[in-house]
From TrEMBL:
InterPro entries: Spo11/TopoVI_A (IPR002815), Spo11/TopoVI_A_N (IPR013049), Spo11/TopoVI_A_sf (IPR036078), Topo_VI_alpha (IPR049333), TopoVI_A (IPR004085), TOPRIM_Topo6A/Spo11 (IPR034136), WH-like_DNA-bd_sf (IPR036388). It comes from the Archaea. This is Type 2 DNA topoisomerase 6 subunit A. It catalyses: ATP-dependent breakage, passage and rejoining of double-stranded DNA. The gene is top6A. The keyword ATP-binding applies.
Amino acid sequence: MGKPAKQHGKLFLPDIEFYYVKDIEARCLASLLGIAESMYNQMKEGRVPELKIATRTKYNIEYNEDSEVWVYGDRRSVRSAKTVKGAYMLLRMAYVIGFLKEQLNANKSSTLRELYYISENWGMAKFNEQQESDRLVEDLEILTAFQREHFHIRPEEDGATVIGPLRIREETRRGMREIHCQDDVGEGGYQIPVNVDKIEFVDHDAKFVIAIETGGMRDRLVENGFDEKFDAIIVHLKGQPARSTRRLLRRLNTELGLPVVVFTDGDPWSYRIYASVAYGSIKSAHLSEYLATPAAKFVGIRPSDIVKYELPSDKLTDQDIKALNAILQDPRFNTEFWKKEVTLQLELGKKSEQQALAKYGLDYVTDVYLPERLTELGII
């Protein structure tokens, strides 16, 4: 029997879950309708309607000492019907709120892509491209303090997979079921659902969680039995991780008290993957307290690893160099560790991949590199 998991919120018994979810949806809908009501009241009073919303740039994120994550600061942008662009935005927002009201009342859901196509029937409120509709949904998240999952809006990408000594309970079409993420799954692992908060952690025998960027390296660890040898929960990030993946990592850390480490390639794009897990992304800083895991530690590949292990490497591209210089200006990376590593990489002019460790054999990463680094980090 593994360690019992602490309960999360009120999401376990079906009847409690029903009322808890319905309460969230009711408050979410009320908040959405409050935006429309505010615009209506402004027009009723003879004023040009406008909305103020947090500015989403790296210059408007600040470190929250209490939650230990990066959140939006006090800078605000004004969306006003005084401009044609602003008028269109407010019109589209009204249409989206109306659509979400119908969707929530009917207990239906839709994808971000479907929302974009649904607007084909909205006349002048039609979106020109999906980026516009995606951004508007993010605006609504910021304005309401609810997540798109509460709007019943689903992403196109799915969560990745988990394999390790963890038993969960989830509701399926055939009722509640328990799944052990080692014994009851194949080598593909357990598929992370869109709404991770509906999962109950039952028990576990894990000592830590390792989040891995690439599928090839994830498969190497599974094939080598890393999860069994080190009592590790292996989470595949699938590149830039989906919200559901980041939410799961946070829950494993905060609810089960498991250390989380992130293992990526050694390039600026991979460092940003780590940042989205540990610090929260700039794009979704309004959800950092819900998604980010500030205690997550970076395993590598580090620029210093290229030198230490004499790893095969590629020359940095102009885009890589530009991205590394941007990281040096990013407040999320304002630590001595990152300044030293990024500066070294710029001096080396090189980048390397996780699988470059195969230079020393297929078992080297699980027998030597990871045990050494995890010991250094105090994980094992």
